[in-house]
Amino acid sequence: MGSKKRGSESVEVEEGQLEAPANEVVSSGKSKKKMKREKGKEEDSVRDEDAGPSVAPNSIKPMERRKKRKALDKERRHSTLESEKSKPKKMDVESKHNKIEASGVASTIGSSSSGILPEFHIGVFKDLASSDASVREAAAEALVMELQDVQKAYDRLENKDSVEGGLKLEAEKEDGLNECAPSLRYAIRRLIRGVSSSRECARQGFALGLTLLVGTIPSIKVDSLLKLIVDLLEITSSMKGQEARDCLLGRLFAYGALARSGRLAMEWNCNEDTPYIKEFTSLMISLAAKKRYLQEPAVSIILDLIEKLPAKALLNNVLEAPGLAEWFAGATEVGNPDALLLALRLREKTSVDSSVFNKLLPNPFCPNKLFAADHLSSLASSLKESTFCQPRVHSVWPILVNILLPDVLLQADDVASVSSSLKKHKKNRKSSSSEEENAKNLQCFIEVIVEGSLLLSSHDRKHVAFDVLLLLLPRLPASFVPIVLSYKLVQCLMDILSTKNSWLYKVAQHFLKELSDWAKHDDVKKVTVVVALQKHSNGKFDSITQTKIVKDLMADFKTESGCMLFIQNLQDMFVDESHAVEEPSDQSQTTDDNSEIGSNEDKEFVGTMGNSDVLKTWIVESLPSLLKYLKLDLEAKFRIQKEILKFLAIQGVFTASLGTEVTSFELQEKFRWPKAATSSALCRMCIEQLQQLLASAQKGEGSRALPNGLEPNDLGSYFMRFLSTLRNIPSISLFRPLEDEEENVFKKLQALETSLSREERNSGLSSDVNRLHALRYLLIQLLLQMLLRPREFLEAASELIICCRKAYPCPDLLESSGEDDNDDTAPAVMDVMVDTLLSLLPQSSAPMRTAIEQVFKYFCNDITDDGLLQMLRVIKRSLKPARHQVAESDNDDEDDDDDEDFLDIEEDEVIDKAETGQTGESEDQTDDSEAVGGFKKVDEEVPEASDDSDEGMDDDAMFRMDTYLAQIFKERKNQAGSETAQYQLVLFKLRKPQVLLVYSNLARALVCPHTAESSEQLGQRIWGILQKKIFKAKDYPKGEDVQLPTLESLLQKNLKLASRPIKKKKLAGKKQSASWNRQKMIASLAQNSTFWILKIIDARNFPESELQRVLDIFRGVLGEYFDSKKFQMKPEFLKEIFRRRPWVGRHLFGFLLENCSSTKFEFRRVEALDLVTEILKSVGPADGSGRDALKEILKSHLSKLCHLIEVLVTNKAEKQSRRAEVRKFCGKIFQTVSTVKLAKAFLKSLDQNVHVLCESQLGDQFLNLKKLP
């Protein structure tokens, strides 16, 4: 405050007072004598200057007063220097005494020469500028309490002239504060000057003091205070920018203190005709018009005053204030959001229409007129200017939102809308008139302000648009979501989020997050948000914006009502093509310069399919995905499946020949189609999704009977009845006409499925139920496949019909097609079925392959020898070498040789066992569907068999399978690589004692390079079998037949394979990628095999003496790890071994410490620190049950651990990251040894020089360890 000179005569005194001690007390009489004795001429000059304004306050201009003050200062300094030269021998004691007296004057002010008034300590002014709010508040309270006492004593005096005749302390006689004590007058003037200071928090503190002082002491006159504010904070033309800004802000804080003190309201309560409110309002309007940054806080001060005044005072004083009407009149032209805010608040408080509001508010006022398009257009310029206060949201927006959506609609309304929307053949519930008006107002607001003004303007105004929409969300009913999430807004979001370096990227992300949080707990809101986003983005919102908001909201549907509502909305969007009308998007206005909607692939896709089909494609794909995360009871889930099935069947399988609506009286439903004919590609997609839905239902269905027993919970049966019903309606036909032969087969499949369904229901709980069920679903999939691919499946369908008729003869089946059923030379039914199913596999879809696998699963025990050999011949491939082979290095050839020998097992013993049938009894059986797995896609999972449906094979069947397996082994050397195909075929028949044998052969086939040359798909298939049926199987070899030497050999070979580096061969295009993926798959095989073998070893509970060979294998691996740079085994793999098998880490702990200390490679040493930490962690928690075991292992290896610490601190790592790892490791070790009470022993084992190094490199970590008791 003292750093800048004001147009007042007291700046110098003020600076001295701020620096004076607060606890020194000197009487005012002594101060008076000193000033008379030492100042002399100065005092007379000051009196003359003080007297000037009292006689003619406006006769001397501020510039003249400043010049006069400078001249007096110069003269005073000159006289002081002369006096010091003339009296050089003046005693220091007197000088010190004078200084103390001078500081006492500044420190404490007495109000009279005799000390009849209490003293006022001015040290509180220093605390008013403190950055601590509590200090400022305490100082303000102390200031007010002291001045209250001074003023009370002053009021009790009879002769006030004696006090006023003394030291005036800058208080002029004609400043209007004649009834105030001199100390109070001084404090007021100083507080007013203090609010203009930019030092720390002076403005806040001095304004607080002024607020309390004016509100507490009534002797302070309002008119005098207003005059003082203008005079003391006067702005002249000679002031620089910063100085003028400080004065303006000082006025603002001073006026704010007056408004918040409540004095103006008290004045009006005493006198309703008081002129002060008008004057104050006019001053504030004038101040707001001076600078743009003063506008909002000035209006905020007026609003504070408005809250304290009644409506009558507002009408007669505030609204009639000079300059207010003119300020309102020019608001719409210049764009003044604060004027609009003030007008809205005044109208809200008074509830009276006034002409003062001019164009800002409609007259008469009502929300409908306020949010009319014409009126909003006039307010648009004002609202666009509200961006200056970012990142805050201007106060005018919450008021507009409150008027726009006055009340939050009850949740019951949304629930009612849900229930009404789910009713069929009824009109939607009519909204009340107030809801319609609110919707109309919101529509105008969004179109004119948000879309027409903010979104088409700058980035800042787009930011404001998103902030305003976030204000709307808490009050927004679900039915209004389509209005807010309009086409232009969604397009703007996509434009911003499609480019990550967009300036508004984080703003749009925050908006979507808030939108998702608002909608995710309400099904109605979720539906409206998803529909709006996808409708305006043609179903590609997530892909364009690279977000998952639509996917996450769809995954949040947990209730049946929510799913039904979503399905109905998607159906309506599919049929209603109003969304297909394209609206132009002006990217130059809604996007960044470099942003572009979507990728080129997306645009090409849209161009080939059309916007309408792109959205419909998303609808078709989204409906079945609802069931993915849905967890409901079987009955509720079945109802949802039926709704999805009906939609897919109507839009994919059928079409209406007359009109777009058809009513089925039998089903009591109305079915709708789009006005434009659905494309054949979309129909095919619906059928494919229908196939997938039926396949998923077949996999996931539990009991196929509902609790009430009235209707079977069978989606396939429901579909066939639905199909038959719709085919009987004349105005409905299939999406493509069938030929006569296709029509005949189609009807036979329908009739056969009906008969098998009846037979299934009559079978009860017999073993044929699963067979009949699998056959029925195969027939349904075949029927749909016929619609997709004309004439391709006629022969297979005819043969399958014959097989079903022979396997399950029924009197109501169709007549024979002319073949002689009793012909003895005819092949067996199972052979024909196997041949038919094998012929279907290569050309079938994934759902149909699933149905075929289920048939194989339940009919596998009836497969004959001819059928089995036929299966083997189909999947056997001729693996000839490639015509052009890539030349590789000798090392690669050696690696290939190693691959061929990997996991090699003596085959003579295997063949002997197969031929003699020396196999144990089957305990469990894996999925039979693996037999036909060779035709599956690489990325498709192998379906798991239900535990309750697996049936074991008898001894004869098992013996036959072992014989075939032996034949396969014998042919291995003649046909390199061909055995891999047979292994994946016979795996599902192998029993547990043979698991190791099967594993070794499959692993060897996978690693063999001939497998990669022949078929990548075959390798993927083998890898899938190993993972699913061996590594992740619940059961694994546990019997005594499992020999430890065999496990040791497998373990050693797998560890060797895991340590082999992945080589980047120079191949062309896809071959290089395939080679890279295969090497990573082999590395994963070695790691998973190691975990699996260790699990088997653990299960046998071998004594420690027998496990020495296993530990030696690991020691050899660790030794090579520390000795060779080329050793590629990942430390994470070793850590996982120690985590899963803690006994391995405990036995290798000492060996690991030794090698970690002695290795010559720094990076190996630092890497191995994690292994040491992992072993200690696997032993057990230091503060739990494993504390004793941890203490024992540390105690036994304490010297090795200390040596490792010594090596780490002696050989300081070069890289900073490695040094950080060392510090982290040492900190963990120190914490562990302190926890297990080994700190003293640990420190004793360390040499003294190691102590010094630890203190210098590890700092507090080591010092804290040494401080432990």
TrEMBL record:
Residues 889-910, 921-930, 941-955 have a biased composition (Acidic residues). GO terms for biological process: regulation of DNA-templated transcription. One of its GO terms (cellular component) is nucleolus. Coiled coil: none annotated. Residues 39-50, 72-98 have a biased composition (Basic and acidic residues). It comes from the Eukaryota. Residues 1-98, 581-602, 883-955 are annotated as: Disordered. GO terms for molecular function: DNA binding. Keywords: Nucleus. The keyword Nucleus applies. Residues 586-598 have a biased composition (Polar residues). Its main location: nucleus. It is found in: Nucleus. Belongs to the MYBBP1A family. This is DNA polymerase V. It comes from Morus notabilis. The lineage of its organism: Eukaryota, Viridiplantae, Streptophyta, Embryophyta, Tracheophyta.
